C-alpha cells in the first residue's frame, strides 16, 4: 500500500486497499465478468479513466492480492484479469453500496454514462424470486448498449448480458425496456411503476414476472 490512513479500523484498512479512485469500479467490472476481462473490456466499462491510471490501478490491485492476470489462451490473444478469492469476497460490500447508491438514482444526471452490464449487481442484490416452487422464467431488460437476461427460478435471481450467456435460455417471458435512469429507478424501488411508464418504461409479455420479483403488486 502506497498510502495508509494508519488506523486500526476495519473500514480504514479496507479503504487503504481499495479506496483509491477507480479501484472499486474495477472490482465491479470483474464481478460482472466472471469469465474474465481483457484490458480493453475494462477500459470500455470505465468511461473517463485515463489509460495510464487504469494500468496503475490494476498493478495496485494485483499487488494487494485482489486480482490476478492470466496469460493468453487460444483463441483469446491477450491476457485476462480476474478477481482472486479475496477480491470476490468484496461482492457483498459492493452489492450493499450499489443498493444504497441506487436509492439516489432519481437525483442522478440524465446524461450520465451507462453500460447495461452495470445492472447485473443491483438486479441480483435487489430482486427476489417470490415463487420458488414455480417454473423458471426469463426477463429481458432492453436499455443501454446490450440486453440483460435475468433468470428467475428455484429461489434465485441471476443476471448476465445477452452476449455473456452460456447457451440459449430461450425466448424471454417478459421484455422490459426504457431509458436507463427509469429502469434503475424501477429496480431500486424509488420510482413507482406508474411514474416509470410515464418516463418511457414499457413491458411486453407476462406481467406476472414483475409481480414474482416484487417490482409491481399483484
Automatic annotation (TrEMBL):
<keyword id="KW-0804">Transcription</keyword>
<dbReference type="Pfam" id="PF01638">
    <property type="entry name" value="HxlR"/>
</dbReference>
<dbReference type="InterPro" id="IPR002577">
    <property type="entry name" value="HTH_HxlR"/>
</dbReference>
<dbReference type="InterPro" id="IPR036388">
    <property type="entry name" value="WH-like_DNA-bd_sf"/>
</dbReference>
<protein>
    <submittedName>
        <fullName>Helix-turn-helix domain-containing protein</fullName>
    </submittedName>
</protein>
<dbReference type="InterPro" id="IPR036390">
    <property type="entry name" value="WH_DNA-bd_sf"/>
</dbReference>
<keyword id="KW-0238">DNA-binding</keyword>
<feature type="domain" description="HTH hxlR-type">
    <location>
        <begin position="9"/>
        <end position="109"/>
    </location>
</feature>
<keyword id="KW-0805">Transcription regulation</keyword>
Amino acid at each position: 500500500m502506497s498510502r495508509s490512513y494508519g488506523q486500526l479500523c476495519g473500514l480504514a484498512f479496507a479503504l487503504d486497499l481499495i479506496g483509491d479512485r477507480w479501484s472499486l469500479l474495477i472490482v465491479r467490472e470483474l464481478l460482472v465478468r466472471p469469465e474474465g476481462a481483457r484490458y480493453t473490456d475494462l477500459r470500455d466499462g470505465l468511461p473517463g479513466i485515463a489509460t495510464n491510471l487504469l494500468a496503475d490501478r490494476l498493478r495496485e490491485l494485483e499487488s494487494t492480492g485482489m486480482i490476478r492476470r492470466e496469460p493468453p489462451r487460444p483463441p483469446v490473444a491477450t491476457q485476462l484479469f480476474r478477481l482472486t478469492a479475496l477480491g470476490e469476497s468484496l461482492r457483498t460490500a459492493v452489492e450493499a453500496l450499489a443498493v444504497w447508491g441506487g436509492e439516489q438514482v432519481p437525483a442522478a444526471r440524465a446524461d450520465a454514462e451507462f453500460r447495461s452490464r452495470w445492472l447485473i449487481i443491483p438486479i441480483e442484490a435487489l430482486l427476489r424470486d417470490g415463487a420458488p416452487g414455480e417454473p423458471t422464467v426469463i426477463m429481458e431488460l432492453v436499455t443501454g448498449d446490450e440486453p440483460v437476461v435475468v433468470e428467475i427460478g428455484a429461489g434465485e435471481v441471476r443476471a448476465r448480458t445477452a452476449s455473456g450467456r452460456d447457451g440459449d435460455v430461450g425466448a424471454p417471458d417478459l421484455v422490459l425496456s426504457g431509458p436507463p435512469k427509469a429502469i434503475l429507478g424501477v429496480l431500486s424501488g424509488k420510482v413507482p411503476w406508474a411514474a416509470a411508464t410515464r418516463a418511457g418504461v414499457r413491458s411486453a409479455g407476462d406481467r406476472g414476472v414483475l409481480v414474482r420479483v416484487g417490482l409491481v403488486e399483484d
